[in-house]
Write a structure and sequence with these properties.
The complex is a heterotrimer of chains A (305), B (239) and C (104).
Chain A: H1 3-24, H2 39-42, H3 54-72, H4 89-111, H5 114-145, H6 150-160, H7 164-167, H8 169-182, H9 194-201, H10 206-231, H11 242-261, H12 269-296
Chain B: H1 3-27, H2 31-51, H3 55-79, H4 96-100, H5 110-118, H6 134-154, H7 169-178, H8 182-203, H9 211-223, H10 226-231, H11 234-238
Helix pairs in contact in B: 1-2, 2-3
Chain C: H1 6-26, H2 30-55, H3 61-91
Classes of the chains: A mainly alpha (305), B mainly alpha (239), C mainly alpha (104).
Chain lengths: 305, 239, 104
């Protein structure tokens, strides 16, 4: 596939994906009662200044969109229907989604109101919370498929006749939890609780704010699509064409994540960190062990090797 | 367009990003921005890694440094009195890269500015970002670059192989890490573990009184000086 | 197959290294000095990868070096930030000239 075609594909897919999320997400970002402000942060002297960093502020939504497009690049909608089938696709995905977070931090800082800077802070704290569990969750499918390429992982599931959600329910649960943290959805939306969201997004002119909406909705789409690829067999399926299966599974993932997320009380940044380091990371390590044992027992290996 | 030209163009782009980012990091007045510039520099170097067909390393680099620099920025903002560079960027006498990389840090609006400044008193503090060694450092850095470049350009020719590395460098690197370089790999893991222990030990909250505890201690010290010896280092309480 | 010669990469690395030296020597804030050190390490990593590609592309040891350099950079950053947190708690500053003696 030519470079231009790949660029067009990623942009279209990013737009379509975020439109999909925006259509089914009930309240979008920032509903509910936001937890209290960080009192200590409020007392720092520089909080009084109101001098935006114009460069960073303007650059932030652009960086976010670029990161989103990069992440979309490796989502497989068919054996050939993929922007680029990188050999290290999964690792690349983890990296690229972090860049989106960088964009949020830039925007929060650039807006330079107290609440927006707090948003920037909480986003970074959330990074520390989700990144290790997410990595441990996605290692499982890569181990079973013996590849980091997204297409290979889907093919391996098809060959083994086993969705990895069945073989690795623990990894799937971890992925859902970490994915919700990563996409700033229901129980983990502290950086985008209402007050903060108003501070960060409201500092942008409407066209740029629309870009932010695309990026933040697209984030959930990308995470859900990755979940569908890793655990739900991706584009493989009978009767329907591959892209339809992938879309359906992504939709199911989004509904599942949003629905599950609404069943839990909102967590503060500190609670997220505690949850991550005390519960999710040990579970993730356990998951890696279990998956290793399953592979030795021949689960999910199919006709392969 | 030929691949050679394309490679040169990509090289020029990434090299420019890497060097401009590094320059921006070293010279901008905004500490937040300098963290971002350093990230840009690392991304430029990651691009060079891709050109060198080490794509695994490229993404590893981006991941480590985007996350790492974000956390570093967070600390920088905590530790600095002027992390956004708003005051420093108004200093007269910013020249060259210092001026260029500090553009767009908006000056305070003068109608509301007066009350803004009243909050914190640190007028006498030396706010400058650089040490008095700066001129010397410029000379030394320039000398280092000239010396390295001269050595590179005047060196005798090295034997170079123009073999193509295998396409799946990730696979090969993984095998080396788990085989030949197992000891180094495990050593790095141990190093990280020790690093975690060390920094947690250094930064543990109980090591030194926080501001609330400090006030309590100071109050106690005012009442009964005898307690101070038990409460902690007296020099610390005076601060 | 690589149109860009080894020397070009090494020159870029030399420039990064020089800028890193400037940052380490000239910056007052400890965090900025730490960032300068990261730049120095990064220039070294670029050198290692460039040499790997142009002199020993069949042997992936060059990449291992860089991975280890990145790891050490991360650990150094963590320890450095831990130290700075400690210093900041004591005197409310991480300007290096305020810390000429680490005793007390």
């Amino acid at each position: 596939m030519g470079v231009g075609l790949a660029v067009l594909w990623t942009l279209l897919l990013a737009l379509a994906g975020s439109a999909l999320v925006a259509a089914i997400e009930p309240h979008r970002l920032g509903h509910g009662n936001e937890p209290g402000p960080a009192a200590e942060l409020r007392t720092l002297p520089w909080r009084r200044s109101r001098r935006p960093d114009r460069w960073l502020h303007g650059a932030a939504p652009v960086v976010a969109l670029i990161a989103l497009a990069w992440a979309v690049l490796i989502l497989p909608f068919g054996r050939e229907l993929i922007g680029a089938d990188l050999g290290i696709g999964l690792f690349y995905f983890l990296v690229v989604v972090d860049i989106l977070l960088l964009a949020v931090a830039l925007g929060g800082w650039g807006a330079d109101t107290a609440d927006a800077v707090e948003c920037c802070y909480r986003v970074i704290a959330q990074l520390v919370a989700y990144v290790v569990p997410l990595g441990l969750a996605v290692i499982g499918p890569a181990m079973m498929a013996r590849s980091l390429s997204t297409v290979d992982i889907v093919e391996a599931q098809a060959r083994a006749g086993l969705w990895y959600v069945v073989a690795q329910p623990l990894g799937f649960a971890l992925f859902v939890a970490a994915g919700l943290m990563q996409s700033y959805r229901a129980p983990f939306l502290e950086p985008f609780a209402q007050r903060l969201q108003q501070a960060m997004l409201a500092s942008y002119a409407p066209p740029l704010r629309a870009l932010w909406r695309v990026a933040l909705s697209g984030l959930l789409f990308v995470v859900a699509a990755m979940g569908a690829t890793l655990f739900l067999g991706g584009y493989a399926g009978p009767w329907l064409p591959g892209w339809a299966w992938m879309l359906l599974k992504t939709l199911a993932m989004i509904v599942l994540m949003l629905g599950l997320g609404r069943c839990f009380a909102l967590r503060s940044s500190a609670q997220m960190l505690a949850l991550s380091w005390k519960l999710l990371i040990p579970l993730g390590l356990l998951n890696v062990l279990v998956v290793g044992a399953l592979i030795l027992l021949g689960v999910g290996q199919g006709a392969f090797r | 367009m030929s691949t050679a030209l394309l490679q040169w163009l990509a090289f020029a782009l990434f090299a420019a990003i890497a060097i401009a980012g590094a320059l921006g990091m070293a010279t901008t007045m905004s500490m937040f921005r300098s963290g971002v510039f350093l990230m840009a520099s690392f991304v430029g170097v990651a691009g060079l890694f891709v050109l060198l067909l080490a794509d695994l390393l490229a993404w590893l680099q981006v991941m480590m440094y985007v996350g790492g620099m974000l956390v570093m920025i967070l600390f920088m903002v905590l530790f600095s009195h002027d992390p956004g560079g708003a005051m420093m960027s108004e200093m007269p006498g910013l020249r060259g890269p210092e001026r260029f990389f500090s553009l767009g840090l908006r000056a305070p609006s003068h109608e509301g500015g007066g009350s803004d400044h009243g909050g914190h008193a640190m007028p006498q503090m030396d706010m400058s970002m650089t040490t008095p060694l700066r001129r010397f450092a410029v000379v030394l850095a320039a000398l280092a670059f000239v010396a390295l470049a001269a050595l590179l350009l005047l060196r005798p020719a090295w034997r170079q192989l123009d073999a193509m590395p295998a396409a799946d460098s990730a696979h090969r690197v993984g095998e080396l890490l788990m085989g030949k370089y197992m000891a180094a790999f495990e050593g790095a893991g141990l190093l990280i573990l020790l690093g975690i222990f060390g920094s947690v030990y250094l930064a543990r909250p109980s090591a030194h009184p926080g501001s609330a505890a400090r006030e309590r201690l100071q109050a106690a010290a005012a009442d009964a000086p005898v307690d101070v010896a038990e409460a902690g280092d007296p020099r610390e309480l005076q601060r | 197959m690589s149109a860009v010669p080894l020397t070009a990469y090494l020159l870029v690395a030399a420039a990064l290294f020089a800028i890193g030296i400037y940052a380490v020597l000239a910056q007052r804030s400890a965090v900025m000095v730490l960032m300068g050190i990261e730049l120095l390490l990064n220039a070294t990593g670029l050198n290692a990868v460039a040499f790997w590609r142009h002199t020993a592309a069949h042997d992936y040891s060059g990449q291992i070096f860089t991975i280890l350099i990145v790891t050490i950079g991360a650990v150094e950053m963590a320890i450095g930030l831990g130290l700075m947190l400690l210093l900041f708690r004591r005197r409310r500053t991480v300007q290096l000239d305020a810390w000429q003696a680490l005793r007390g």
